[in-house]
């Protein structure tokens, strides 16, 4: 089969012929119609990720059709249109993943290929209102945004929420989900065009995080936030507690712009703020996220579709953050 393979440090991904996966008990073979990128693929491709090994087929997100099952565990899925939950072996505790947790697309071969093997338990029916390319854009980013907002952030209708970096794959889902849940949504983004796009998705207003007074402007526009979702962090994170309401939850799962700076502890304890880390999500989060997508007929924001052979071009685009939403790879 054809696949995009990570072949070595500081080398572009290679489009090459590799062996089709062979199934172990409990596994199914999915013929992929589309895959999608996450920042994780970019970090791995530039060597900034733990546990990198060569060769590996990258890709955590995929949608396709089940063509083979090792045994009865997956037999009922043959011929079905599916998406794959890339968070494998989450474990028994709902609050955090267990020691066997792993993410599809490193260490195991991922979705940037014509076929991928996964456990039957990681399959979910593809939402019928979506194309394969739209559905492939869902798994990792939508799961992470859903858990950040609802499971950890406890966002509810009427809350004022802030999505930092609304143009991110995770950011566009955060905006769509919060709007669907009846929250009043504010955003930051790196360009006025992206802020306009977020407003078209239902955000009330936004500011450019490159502006000197972005925090004051947001406080003025919103009055203060009940839930903040931040996947960028970096030095600007120090201002977030200042623009939160008492009892607010600040949830983070990435550090695109760098580490957490020095924070004013007095602001955090006097407002009784909660700083919450989160990581992808449990199978229950995945099920609930898909229910929200189906109930509200949410259509993922696909920035651009590339062919499998063009994957490196898509990764380079992610590297300069010029996308709004998801970068999708069409496979067959
Ligand atoms: N722990 C987990 O489970 C988990 C899961 C998913 C993602 N992540 C992490 O979360 C982050 C986002 O992932 P993704 O796949 O959604 O990334 P992505 O699609 O590549 O988006 C990255 C976005 O970061 C925003 N950004 C860059 N610099 C910023 C700054 N200084 N201030 C605010 N925003 C800034 C940009 O937003 P604009 O386009 O709006 O300017 C950019 O589009 C990554 O660091 C990723 O590794 C972690």
TrEMBL record:
Coiled coil: none annotated. Residues 8-329 form the Enoyl reductase (ER) domain. SMART domains: PKS_ER. InterPro entries: ADH-like_C, ADH-like_N, ER, GroES-like_sf, NAD(P)-bd_dom_sf, Zinc_ADH-like. This is Zinc-binding alcohol dehydrogenase/oxidoreductase. It comes from Mucilaginibacter terrae. The lineage of its organism: Bacteria, Pseudomonadati, Bacteroidota, Sphingobacteriia, Sphingobacteriales.
């Amino acid at each position: 089969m054809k696949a995009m393979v990570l072949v070595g440090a500081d080398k572009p991904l290679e489009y090459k012929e590799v062996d089709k996966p062979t199934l172990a008990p409990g596994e199914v073979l999915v013929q992929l119609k589309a895959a999608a990128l996450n920042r994780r693929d970019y970090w791995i491709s530039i060597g900034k990720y733990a546990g990198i090994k060569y060769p590996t087929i990258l890709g955590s997100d995929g949608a396709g059709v089940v063509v083979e099952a090792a045994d009865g565990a997956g037999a009922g899925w043959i011929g079905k249109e599916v998406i794959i939950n890339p968070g494998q072996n989450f474990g028994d505790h709902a609050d955090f993943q267990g020691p066997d947790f792993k993410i599809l697309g490193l260490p195991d071969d991922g979705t940037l290929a014509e076929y991928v093997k996964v456990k039957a338990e990681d399959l979910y029916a593809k939402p019928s209102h979506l194309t394969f390319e739209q559905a492939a854009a869902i798994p990792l980013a939508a799961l992470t945004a859903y858990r950040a907002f609802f499971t950890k952030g406890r966002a509810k209708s009427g809350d004022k929420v802030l999505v930092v970096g609304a143009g991110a794959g995770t950011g566009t889902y955060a905006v769509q989900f919060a709007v669907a849940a009846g929250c009043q949504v504010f955003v930051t983004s790196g360009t006025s065009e992206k802020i306009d796009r977020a407003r078209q998705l239902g955000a009330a207003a936004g500011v450019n995080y490159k502006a000197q007074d972005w925090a004051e402007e947001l406080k003025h526009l919103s009055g203060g936030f009940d839930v903040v979702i931040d996947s960028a962090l970096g030095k600007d994170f120090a201002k977030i507690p200042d623009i939160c309401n008492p009892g607010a939850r600040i949830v983070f799962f990435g550090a695109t712009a760098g580490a957490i700076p020095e924070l004013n502890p007095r602001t955090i304890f006097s407002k009784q703020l909660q700083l919450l880390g989160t990581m992808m999500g449990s199978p229950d989060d995945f099920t609930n996220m898909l229910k929200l997508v189906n109930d509200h007929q949410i259509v993922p924001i696909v920035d651009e579709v590339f062919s499998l052979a063009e994957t490196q071009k898509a990764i380079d685009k992610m590297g300069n953050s010029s996308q709004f939403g998801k970068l999708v790879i069409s496979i067959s």
